[in-house]
Amino acid sequence: MLRPGGLVNNINANGEAFRVPALPIEWNGASIGEGLKVPVLGADTSAVRSELEDQESSMTRVQDLYPDDRVSLREVGLRDGLQLVKTFPSTAAKQRWLREEHSAGVRHFEVGSFLPASTFPQFADVREIVRMVAALPGAHGIALALNERGVNEALASGVAEIASVVSATEEHSQANANRSRDQAIANVRRLCELRDASAHKPIVNAAISMALGCSIAGPVDPLEVIKLAEKCFEAGVDFVAVADTVGYAGPKQVGELTKAIVKMSGSRPVCVHLHDTRGMGIANASAALDAGARILDGSLGGLGGCPFAPGATGNVVFEDLVFLCESKGFATGIDIEKLVAVRSILRSEMPGEPLYGGLARAGLPDRKSGVAA
Ligand SMILES: [Zn+2]
Fold first, then answer.
1. Which residue of 82, 137, 161, 293 is surrounded by the most CB atoms within 10 Å?
2. What contacts 256, CB < 8 A, 6 or more positions away?
3. Residues acting as catalytic residues
C-alpha cells in the first residue's frame, strides 16, 4: 500500500528484492528522492511496519481472489467486448449473461468502465452491474477507470477491483490518451493513493497495453515493458497485465515476455490479456500459461474488435480458453457446454456482432467414440 512517505516492496528485472520510497520523503533526516533504493533491513519504523501489514493484507486479498495454485479466467466481454459495439445488451440481458456464466462456474468478470455515459452509453449501468456481481456467491467484479473522476466513481461503487491502463510506447500513450507514459504512471499512483484512503481498498491492476507490438510504433522493446511494470508496482498496483492489444505477437514472444514479468512480479499473479486479431490467441494463451501466467482474459464468442484494425476479430474466445486450460491440466471449474449456451444471449441482443470460437462450432470432443477411424 502506498502513502506519502511510505515504502513499497519491489522486485527488479533480475528478480532481486529492494524497497523504494513511494513518494519523496525524509529518511533519517536526509531527503530521499523518489525512486531511490533503500535496503529492506534499514526499514524499521512503526510506519513501515504498518505499511508491511497493509501489504500483507493486500497480498492475502489478491491471493484469495486469484489463488496462485490455479488459473483464473476472466470474462472481459462486458467491458472490452462492448467497448466498440454499436448495439449493446440491455441491463437485464447483461444480468442474465452474468448469472448464466456464473452458474457455468465463471467467477471473474470485468463489468464495465467508469467513462462518461454520454460517450459510452454501453457502460451507463456499470454501478448496477457492479452491485449485481457482488451479490453472486464467490464472484469478483472488475471495472476500468482512466482518470481521477472515474476512480472516485469506481471507489464509490464498491467494485472489488479497479483496472487501469498504461501504454507500452510513448507514441501510443500520446495518441490514445493524450498523455506521456510518465503522466500515465502518475495517474496510476494517484489511483493507488485514493484506493489506500478508501474504506474498502479494492485491488488495483495496471494493464500495459501494446506490450507486444504497437499499432503506431511497431515492435516494442520488452525491456521497456519490464521497466513500466516496475514503475506500476512502485506506484502501488497489486498486479500487472501484459496486453497484446492489437494481436501482433506469436507464442515465442508472448512466452518470453510473460516469463520476465512473472519473474519480476514475485509472489504477485501475472495476467496476460490477448486478442485473436491474427488467429494466434489460443497459441499465445498456451505460451503464457507455460511461462507462468495465472490470470487470462477472454470474452464469450471472442466479442470485441480491434480499435486499430477495423473488422478484425476481438478478444481471445473465452470458451476456447477454458478448453485450452482443461486440456493442459489446469482445472477451471467452468462447464464449457453451459458456457457455450450463454452465447444465445449475445446473438439475440447483438445480432449484428460476429461471434467466433471452435467449441461453439464443433462442440466438445466425443469422448465415447474414442479414436476416429
Ligand atoms: Zn483488450
1. 293
2. 222, 291
3. 306
The secondary structure of residue 204, as a DSSP letter, is E
pLDDT tens-digit profile, the chain (373 residues): 333 333 334 444 333 343 433 332 222 323 333 333 333 333 445 666 666 677 777 778 899 999 989 999 999 999 999 998 889 999 999 999 999 999 999 999 999 999 999 999 999 999 999 999 999 999 999 999 999 999 999 999 999 999 999 999 999 999 989 999 999 999 999 999 999 999 999 999 999 999 999 999 999 999 999 999 999 999 999 999 999 999 999 999 999 999 999 999 999 999 999 999 999 999 999 999 999 999 999 999 999 977 666 667 899 999 999 999 999 999 999 999 999 999 999 999 999 899 999 999 999 998 655 444 4
Could you give the CA distance from residue 20 to residue 282 in angstroms, rounded to a whole number? 37
What per-residue string of b and e applies to 26-61 under the rule 16 or more CB within 10 Å gives b?
ebeeeebeeeeebeeeebeeeebeebbebbeebeeb
Q: What is the CATH number of the domain that holds 315?
A: 3.20.20.70
Centre of ligand 1 to C-alpha 209, Å, is 8
- 56 and 133 fall within a common domain: no
- What pTM did the predictor assign? 0.84
Residue with cell 464443433: 362
To the nearest 10°, report the CA torsion of 68, 65, 276, 306: -140
Domain that holds residue 204: 70-362
Same domain, 56 and 93: no
Q: How far is the CA of 245 from the centre of ligand 1 (A)?
A: 5
Residue 273 CA, ligand 1 centroid: distance in Å: 6
Q: Are residues 36 and 121 in the same domain?
A: no
